[in-house]
Amino acid sequence: MFAGTGSDVGKSVIAAAFCRIFKQDGYSPAPFKAQNMALNSFATPEGLEIGRAQAVQAEAAGIPCHTDMNPLLLKPSADTICQVVLNGKSIGNQHAIDYFTSNNKAVLRKEVCSAFDRLEKRYNPIVLEGAGSISEINLREVDLVNMPMAAHANASVILVADIDRGGVFASVYGSILLLNESERKLVKGILINKFRGDLRLFESGIKMLEDLCKIPVIGVVPYYKDIHIEEEDSVMLHTKNRGSMQGKVNIAVVLLQHMSNFTDFNPLEHDKRVHLYYTNESSEIADADIIIIPGTKNTLHDLQILRKNGTAQAILQAHVSGKTILGICGGYQMLGKELLDPTGIESDLKQLPGLNLLPIRTEMEGEKITKQVNFSIVGGKTSCTGYEIHNGRTEILSRIQPLNKMENGFTDGCFTENCYGTYIHGILDNAEFVDMIIAPFLIEKAQHPSFDYFKFKEEQFDKLADHVRKHVDMDLVYKIMHNS
Q1: pLDDT at 264 (0 to 100)
Q2: pTM, whole model, 2 decimals?
Q3: Complete domains list, the chain, with CATH
């Protein structure tokens, strides 16, 4: 288990690295995180929902993702309310205080432990990931994901600390000191992450940590900028690549308060023909060639905010000016004539007019659609892949060209001359679709070949594994594993 001294210390990426390392070394690894809190999710081959981070780790391990890898997913829909997804299916919304203090913890604990037990019978080793800090002592009795899970799995725990944020000695020593005796015995190693500078300057620090904690440091992993693995959280999107750039196709992703599945745009971040940025500034939207409205966990609420802050008007003006508008999932729903939520599936807003760029009408319904899909773009011949995760059924109100033809003969989305809408997440992973939407803006701009995102991801997993392997004592890691 890779557990952390806190949030955002790099546990997810380190776990992905070890999934790839174990695969390279001839094992059959699988990832596991008992409980994940994220708006970034993915659909399994069975049409069920898990956290995107575990889907990425499964990809690193070279195996299909499964709900047993993340049996419990919490998707925030407001500051204190989460949708609870158990074994891939939503079981409703809960206030945070009810979730953490209710009597259903025993039931949930049994479910996540059973998922691990099933997974362990199919794969070896299981690469577990903790959540936040392992030493949240006020939540010890209700914790499902950190030390209680490690105890159930009899896992060797590697404590991951982020040295870049400072205070690494206090965070490591304090985290271990706050564990009880039985928990402390499970911690078999320390991994220092995100180191900057000359590693030789920290050699004395390694010895100090080992003397203090009586636990070996298995490695010090340097900070990197040239390896690109999907991030779990979207907290820094607003700082990425602000403003337009000459010589590139400028693509603006509208920042939504409840934005979900932001990894839809990772392929564009690495396409040399494109400059991608995230914004809700009217001037930056006006400068873009293509404006994308992404998915959201609360479609009507986010649409209301877009109207209040002027972003909706900027999008409409851009459309009039000949810019391309693309809506994905909730963004697709916003492009229609009307959105209805009569039973309060997402919020207390019952009805809102849409942006009226596509002749569609959407009504939120209780049953969530989650599935992987194979499709071709209408007029195209290439087989493409993606996935759907959404509430709501969309009705097309007039004759209009569908955007995609599904493998089962049904269609998805629709489009007009410069406005596209689709329910398919991951559609931008497919070079044919990206080539189609950027083609009108490529004249006299950067001439680069189509971008193969699937090949790129495989290269990044291997680069990550090489980087971590170089700076971790793998002999010690295997010794710890075999002695557990």
Answers
A1: 95
A2: 0.87
A3: 2-229 (3.40.50.300), 237-451 (3.40.50.880)
- Rounded Cα distance between 312 and 80, Å, is 27
- Sequence letter at residue 472: V
Residues of the chain with confidence (pLDDT) below 50: 234-235
Q: Which residues are catalytic?
A: 329, 425
Q: What pLDDT sits at residue 240?
A: 60
